[in-house]
Design goal:
- With 425 residues, the chain is α/β, with parallel strands linked by helices.
- It has 3 domains: 3-196, Rossmann fold (3-Layer(aba) Sandwich); 203-284, N-(1-d-carboxylethyl)-l-norvaline Dehydrogenase, domain 2 (Orthogonal Bundle); 286-416, 3-Layer(aba) Sandwich (Rossmann fold).
- Helices cover 38% and strands 14% of the residues.
- The chain has 15 helices and 14 strands.
- The protein has helices spanning 13-22, 34-41, 52-61, 94-103, 123-133, 157-163, 173-183, 196-227, 231-238, 261-268, 274-284, 286-297, 322-332, 356-360, 380-386; strands spanning 3-7, 26-30, 65-68, 76-79, 112-115, 144-147, 166-170, 191-195, 303-307, 336-340, 353-354, 365-368, 391-394, 407-409.
- Strands 3-2-1-4-5-6-7-8 form an 8-stranded mixed sheet, with helices on both faces. A 6-stranded parallel sheet has the order 11-10-9-12-13-14.
- Strand 5 (112-115), helix 5 and strand 6 (144-147) form a beta-alpha-beta unit.
- Helix 1 (13-22) packs across helix 3 (52-61), helix 4 (94-103) runs parallel beside helix 5 and helix 12 packs across helix 13 (322-332).
- The longest helix is centred in the middle third of the chain and has 32 residues, at 196-227.
- The protein is globular, with a radius of gyration of 24 Å.
């Protein structure tokens, strides 16, 4: 039975470790978060993902998965650490570099090293390979090096790790072949072998494509608001064209992928990427756009019940979430905030969290920033009876409101917002 050492036990590393353990590998997961390590060794998880808790419990009990804070000798090393942006939007590769250096004492001839972290083009060639070569190894001959980016959807990670096509980019052809063999142990989707730099760029363009298309929808929402047009109806009708699929507008773009990856391309070729840059600027402007419309409904000092902080519905991930920017802007403007977030934990955010009842009590507005299932059918009786002004501003177009006594706004009727709203009670 081969052994895999996975560096980084976050939203990608932990599910990946569990899947390899399920497929028969002896897996050791490495993370600097001692709390996460201790939980994993008890068969518990520190993140929310459908089905992951039961799978981890099973493979830990079967002694196929364990965790530690330092690497060990293995046949395969997988690096799945974060690659955040610096404030100037350039890639912070320090975690990748540190992880690569940390496995050096444990490498032996024939090992396969795979970087799953999302990285700018040429990171494998210009940073990872030289670190290993400096230790005296012949990369591509003695140590096989590849980039295999993740491409999964939170909430469906365990399914998509198995079924999705995997792109395996080797530093050379034999490295791609060796890395592809690793994933062949459980992946039923196609496994496509290519060069490392092509794999790096492919991953970035997948998320950039989505970011640019979301920016188009968000720009449409702004234009429609100015011209007095129902943006949601425009999208619905335009999408009746057989070759048109306009995305839905929202409060911005979040998550470690869409909100970060386009900058990795811009960093490498700024003059050649004006469309990508402008799309990022549009999506980054949406929290301010949302707050501008909150100000049309609630005067400064009023109470806003914020529903949702995660960047996507039904997950606990708040990384790069535009909801956090909206909250900060509202705080700066002097609003009283009460935040209802049924998925994220209190320790993940700096804002105090409330229950549904606490959030809406004497509130002037419910501001929906995430499309959690819990928000789709709200208790309208409580909203009407407990809120000072029963108004909902739904930036995710996910809430169903039937009561004529509750004022409801989404991107379809933003233009109807007045400068000042009279109480509906």
């Amino acid at each position: 039975m081969k052994k895999i050492c996975i560096i980084g036990l976050g939203y990608i590393g932990l599910p990946t470790a569990a899947m390899f353990a399920k497929s028969g590998y002896d897996v050791v997961g490495v993370d600097i978060n001692e709390s996460a390590v201790n939980l994993l060794n008890q068969g518990k998880i520190h993140i929310e993902e459908v089905g992951l808790g039961n799978l981890v419990k099973k493979v830990v009990q079967e002694n196929r998965l364990r965790a530690t804070t330092s690497p060990e000798e293995a046949d395969v090393f997988i690096i799945a650490v974060p690659t955040p942006n610096y404030p100037n939007h350039t890639a912070n590769l320090e975690y990748v570099k540190i992880a690569t250096k940390n496995i050096l004492p444990y490498l032996k001839e024939g090992n396969v090293v795979i970087v799953e972290s999302t990285i700018p083009p040429r990171t494998i060639d210009d940073f990872v390979a030289p670190i290993i070569q400096a230790e005296g190894w012949k990369v591509g001959e003695e140590i096989y090096l590849a980039h295999c980016p993740e491409r999964v959807l939170p909430g469906r990670i365990l399914i998509e790790l198995v079924e999705n096509t995997r792109i395996v980019g080797g530093i050379n052809e034999i490295s791609a072949i060796k890395a592809a063999e690793v994933y062949g142990s459980f992946v039923t989707g196609d496994i496509i072998k290519t060069s490392a730099v092509t794999a790096e760029m492919s991953k970035l363009m997948e998320n950039t494509f989505r970011d640019v298309n979301i920016a188009l929808a968000n720009e449409l929402a702004k234009i429609s608001d100015k011209l007095g047009i129902n943006a949601l109806e425009v999208i619905k009708l335009a999408n009746r064209h057989p070759r048109v699929n306009i995305h839905q507008p929202g409060p911005g773009v979040g998550g470690h992928c869409l909100a970060v990856d386009p900058y990795f391309i811009i960093e490498k070729a700024p003059e050649q990427s004006p469309l990508i840059f402008n799309a990022r600027s549009i999506n980054n402007s949406m929290p301010e756009f949302v707050v501008e419309h909150v100000e049309k409904i609630v005067e400064n000092g009023g109470k806003v019940a914020v529903f949702g902080l995660t960047y996507k519905g039904n997950i606990d991930d708040v990384r790069e979430s535009p909801a956090l920017d909206v909250v900060s802007l509202l705080q700066d403007k002097g609003y009283q905030l009460s935040i209802y977030e049924p998925h994220a934990m209190q320790e993940q955010v700096s804002f105090p969290l409330s229950t549904f009842d606490e959030a809406i009590d004497q509130a002037d507005l419910i501001l929906v920033l995430t499309d959690h299932n819990e928000f789709k059918c709200l208790d309208e009786v409580k909203i009407y009876s407990k809120m000072r002004n029963p108004i909902v501003f739904d930036t995710k177009n996910c809430v169903t409101i039937n009561s004529q006594f509750i004022k409801y706004y989404n991107y379809g009727n933003l233009y109807t917002m007045g400068k000042k709203q009279e109480s509906l009670v």
